[in-house]
Amino acid sequence: MVHGELWTLKELFVYPNEYIYWSIQIVMYPFMTGLVAGAFVLSSLYHVFGIKELKEMARFALVFSFALLFAAPMPIVLHLQHPFRGINVFMTPHFTSAIAAFGIVFFSYGAIVASELWFLYRKHFVEVALPLKEKKDKGLLEWIKFLIFCSLTLGVYDISEESLKKDEKAIKILAAVGIPVACFLHGYAGFIFGSVKANALWMTPLMPVIFIMSAIVSGIALCMLTYIIVMEARKIKVKSQRKPWMMSLEEVKGAEIGVIKITAKYLILFMIFAITLELLDLVFRGYTAVKHWDILRTVIYQKDFANIFLLQYTLGNLVPFILFLIPGLTIRRASIGLALAMMGVFMMRWNVVIGGQAFSLTLSGYMEYIMPLIPHDWETFKEGLGGAVGIFVMPFALFWIIAKIFPVFDSKEKPAGH
Amino acid sequence: MITRRDFIKYSLQGIAAIAVPLTAIEIINPSRLFASKDTKKVRWGFLVDTQKCVGCGLCVRACKLENETPYDANVSRTWVERYVLTKDGKVFADSPKAARDGFITDKIELGHGKLEEIKKDDIEKAFFVPKLCNQCENPPCVQVCPVGATYQTDDGVVLVDRKWCIGCGYCIMACPYGVRFFHPAYGTAEKCNFCYHRIKKGMKTACVEACPFGARMIGNINDPADEVGKIIRIERVSVLKDEFGTKPQVYYRGLSKEVR
To answer: Which of A21, A40, A150, B99 has a beta carbon 3.0–4.6 Å from B57's, enabling a disulfide?
Structure first.
């Protein structure tokens, strides 16, 4: 069977070779890189612009952005027909292609996040490594821990006031440089679509900007949501197994509504930018009504109406907007709003990627995407629900591991004896 | 000890020193010199005479067999479209199985397994249009390939390197003519290449050879004596979707405005 034939339903006149070649994983790709970029921008709000209320969130967002970074290229790998040849992009990059820049942008961004993390956690590495270095009879686990943290210090053990001040300066510079790079990382994902002149829905210079704005929305939403979940889970954990040496319930405050409120303001701001640009694009297309508008109109207002206007604009944008703007924001209300905002951004990616293939190049036929839910071979797994869920879960698993090396909370939780 | 200033200075000098001889070689590039003298460059072009096509599908069959596109797979390097215009202004079009077996029924395929029967008296006009890769002068598929696995030869034909293609599908998305697909067996991008292995040996493409009505012709359009080139220069011909700026090199005689 031809790739794509399994999940494509054709209607009216469609060219024989046309199928939905870019399926769920290509929806996941901009969604995941968007989360990376958004999380980084959130962390930079504190480091660069000095918004003090976001201090705790900033550290969390940066570590999460790092975890997300590893998951971001995975959708492409799963999508490729020859995943092992993916390395060819680095070996013979063909620079007229938007995808060819991926390696350079991705690695330079990764380097910025990694070095910023290093400066941020350098003190912690030294504090863990030094006592272990002096300890005489180390156990196996302690040896492993020592080796990890000792190498992470990169041989720099100076944690004097003066050097820490220098670290802060470095963090500020890296965070500032990181913002345009993060925007570029994601803006160029938008460019991959926006520059396809053959596709009537994709081709617009607004695409990269729309992608960046919605990316920041989704990144902030995911960080806030994970922050709430982790903080609340921590509270429940302490409550259930209270030990005398642990923090009291008052100390483990759970998610702070103050932090949530401030962050939500930025979420709303970027959401307004994103919606304005998307509506501008829609209005402009309708107003200019060039050749392909006839078919685009039927796709937007009929075939994909529920996906675009109900799931994306109403549930994904309008409802969270109202939820955040009603005074007296609570953690629960914020959580619902955040989950919906993320869903809204996911639906935006879906409506771009799948919606862009919902009509034929003939402009007189349609294609419908039937996502494989129950896999019956590797292809239907990786380009179906299973693959998408796997990709989405991956950064959380990574975050859990990475947070062991880069603790995102104050280490007050340790027993009092230490 | 070397100072920072000196280090940067010497590094820049070093880079400049390496760069100069490279540019010198570029200026007197001998192959480019020879190429500039070569005025009789080959440019393969294709001519489709839609007035002659009867939709028998022999070209599609010949192509599938010649180029080892799985015979029953619902993809093809070339295909034939049928257009039926009714008296009430409706346009119907289809290409069942890429017209591999010709058009064996009067009913028009509407997708979802539905067929539309059009009464003979209702038909205003009907015609067939063969399609294939346009071997564009400015090919978007070549532009977007991230690894350079698809490329344009000196004689204008766009080829795909099956050993290097990563199967991302960007070229498939970028082609406004929908000629590209994933080869069911190789999993790499696949498309018509004017039977490059044949034309390089002075033979005709499989589809041209198979067409009993002379609806398809191929030639070197830069050659003043070439029949295809002559027709393109002298007669009124058109190309498909020129609004994309791809400069397609498959020319059509008798193209109707309904053709997509």
So the answer is: B99
